[in-house]
Amino acid sequence: MRESIDVSAILVTYNSRPVLDGCLRSLQAQEGIRLEILVVDNASGDGTADWIAGSYPEIRLWRNPENVGFARACNQGMREARGEILLFVNPDLRFPDPDAVARLAACLRADRTLGVAAPALYDEDGSGQPSTALAYPNERWTRGELGTLPGELAALLGACLALRAQTAAAVGGFDEDFFLYGEDQDLCLRVRRLGLRLACLTEVRALHIGRHSEGGTSPRDYWQRKLDGEYLFYRKHYSAHALRWIRISQWVKSTWELFLLSLAWPIAGRGSSWKERWGKYGAIRAAAAGRGEGCPKERILSVGHWRPAALGGARK
């Protein structure tokens, strides 16, 4: 029964073995709540699933035969979760304080106008990370099309999100058209459209490594994946007029940046910083031009593939 568990912590893993132990230990060290941990492994090639089964047999584990994407794997965990509160946690995140999850749960229970809560994110050295967004990507080009939405925050970073299971059911979970990146801001927007607001609890801390599963990925490929999700978000929520101006502005900006980088190359050399920026703006220009759309699902799915489903029910 859902009432027997306060919080269901749901993790999606993909080659996460190097960072996972710290995350699981910090979750098991949480106090003041009845917590279960569910892990959905997306066909990791580094033995993540076998390691969990051997080291943490008490954790509920599902093994996908292929990488089905972050959003779909999250929904798998949601359908199996028994908690009143659902906590989505990236495997490269740790809670340094034993009452962190209890504070997130207490906030959601006390304020029914709150839809999603998140902790403040920090690097391992203690420096702060961006945890919130006050607007959606390139929202200025929508000219107010999204209407008036509750709260000051537009989105919370998906590294750690807490929401009531009832709220998750109301929005139908994550949109599975998002393979990786963009699903967090899409979820936040749909929750706000229910009339609920978002909150980042600055008194609750979480340490976040970031990009742990992107090892070996080129800057161009990394930014292409992020932009796949971003343009899917645009096509889903923005008008064709807004999308057209976003493409134009992004193409002009990225072309200018690439021109400046080409001038700087004889002086700066092709160091890691130069390569990162060259890959980033090259991917932005390609996305703005529409190249890469209509790719296989490993990169992006077309809008309309996903349909909300009630939690606990079989998805067609």
Describe the secondary structure blueprint for this structure.
Elements: E1 5-13, H1 17-28, E2 35-41, H2 48-55, E3 60-63, H3 70-80, E4 83-89, E5 93-94, H4 100-110, E6 114-122, E7 132-133, E8 155-156, E9 160-164, H5 165-171, H6 183-192, E10 197-208, H7 219-237, H8 240-268, H9 272-288
Parallel strand pairs: 1-2, 1-4, 2-3, 6-10
Antiparallel strand pairs: 4-9, 5-10, 6-9, 7-8
Helix pairs in contact: 7-9, 8-9
Q: What is the distance, rounded to the nearest whole angstrom, between the alpha carbons of the first and last residues?
A: 24 Å
Gross CATH architecture of the largest domain: Alpha-Beta Complex
Q: Give the full name of the CATH homologous superfamily of the largest domain.
A: Spore Coat Polysaccharide Biosynthesis Protein SpsA, Chain A
Estimate the helix proportion, in percent: 25-40%
Kindly report the average pLDDT value.
Answer: 90
Pick out the low-confidence regions. 294-306, 309-316
Largest sheet at a glance? 8 strands, mixed
Strand content bin = 15-25%
Question: Biggest sheet, strands in spatial order?
Answer: 3-2-1-4-9-6-10-5
User: What string gives the helices and strands in order?
Assistant: EHEHEHEEHEEEEHHEHHH
How many structurally independent domains? 2
Strands, count: 10
What is the name of the CATH topology of the largest domain?
Answer: Spore Coat Polysaccharide Biosynthesis Protein SpsA, Chain A
Give me the number of helical elements: 9
